Amino acid sequence: MGKIRIKTIGDEEQEKVDAKKAQARAIAKKAREEAEARNAAAEGNKPQAQEAKTEKQTEQATPEPKKEKVVVKKAISNKKKQSDSYQKVTAFVDKNKKYKLSEALLLLGKLKRAAFDETVELHINTTEKGISGSLTLPHGTGKTTRVTVANASEDPKQVDDLIKAIESGKIDFDVLIATPETMPKLAKVARVLGPRGLMPNPKNGTVTPKPDEIAKKFAGGQFNYKTEAKFPLLHLAVGKLSFGDKKLEENIITAIHAVKTKNIKSITLKLTMSPGIKIETASL
């Protein structure tokens, strides 16, 4: 059923007026369209260019959504890559086994990688921090100990020159021995010597009224040892690989007895550039 239009009497005149207005609007619209067509033909598709410009302005006016920054974290391993030669000698050592000292010394020769005469090292886990003392190995460490004596009462100029050298960063000694009256002067360089373990100290015998006598002992192979400041660990050089098994064994046993087995939790023997060998301590 179609729509029913209801005609109201008296509206005929109004309808005629509305029809004329509609006709006028249609004529005006047609005229505008014709004018736009002529302009487009003359100027070369200007309406499309204007439309494109408008679209571009709209795009610029509309902010692009922020792109989330993706951070890719690269996994960094703190473990250093071991060389092929190191991995090769590691195969000789059973990490879960504790070796007798004689077995460990025989094994050391197989672990040599360096062209130079490697130092034999003892790394000792102690029962507590603060364990210290002095030690003289029967066959020495294989290293010449440089000893300097500071005696202000006998040679004040030598002490002054020594202090200036230390302040400038020149330290050409392994042990510094001083007389008690020299210590106030050396206090000026305590911040330099202290962290290096070179500051004379009565506890380790490096402050003495007889410095020349003590200097001979240190030059003859005596050295001081002390656990790390923050950990119960001792690191001792007990000779060179070239010493041979017998001399090394005597040096190692002397070092262990000096530290005392009651103060020792575990011992590892190694060369400068080799993996460690766990040592059985019960028979030492």
Largest sheet: 4 strands, antiparallel
- The backbone outline, from C-alpha atoms, is elongated
Strand content: 15-25%
Query: Can you tell me the CATH class of the domain at 88-143 and 221-284?
Result: Alpha Beta
Please, what is the CATH homologous superfamily of the domain at 88-143 and 221-284?
A: Ribosomal protein L1/L10, rRNA-binding domain
- Uncertain residue segments: 75-79
Number of strands: 8
The separation of the N and C termini measures: 118 Å
Write the H/E string, N to C. HHHHEEEHEHHHEEHEE
Return the average pLDDT rounded to an integer.
Answer: 83
Q: Based on helices, strands and strand pairing, what is the structural class? A: alpha+beta
Number of helices: 9
Under the CATH scheme, which architecture of the domain at 88-143 and 221-284 would be assigned? 2-Layer Sandwich
Q: Fraction of residues in helices?
A: 25-40%
CATH topology of the domain at 88-143 and 221-284: Ribulose 1,5 Bisphosphate Carboxylase/Oxygenase
Task: Evaluate the radius of gyration.
Answer: 47 Å
Strand order of the largest sheet: 6-1-7-8
Note down, in words, how this protein is organized.
It is a single chain. With 284 residues, this protein is an alpha+beta fold. Among the domains are: 88-143 and 221-284, Ribulose 1,5 Bisphosphate Carboxylase/Oxygenase; 146-219, Ribosomal protein L1/L10, domain II (Rossmann fold), CATH 3.40.50.790. Helix content is 38%, strand content 16%. The chain has helices at 12-43, 46-61, 84-90, 101-108, 156-167, 183-186, 190-193, 211-219, 245-259, and strands spanning 119-126, 132-136, 147-150, 175-178, 222-226, 233-240, 264-271, 277-279. The protein has a 4-stranded antiparallel sheet, covered by helices on one side. A two-stranded antiparallel ribbon has the order 2-5. Strands 3-4 form a two-stranded parallel ribbon. Strand 3, helix 5 (156-167) and strand 4 (175-178) form a beta-alpha-beta unit. The longest helix is centred in the N-terminal third of the chain and has 32 residues, at 12-43. It is elongated, with a radius of gyration of 47 Å. It starts with 11 loop residues before the first helix and ends in a 5-residue tail after the last strand.
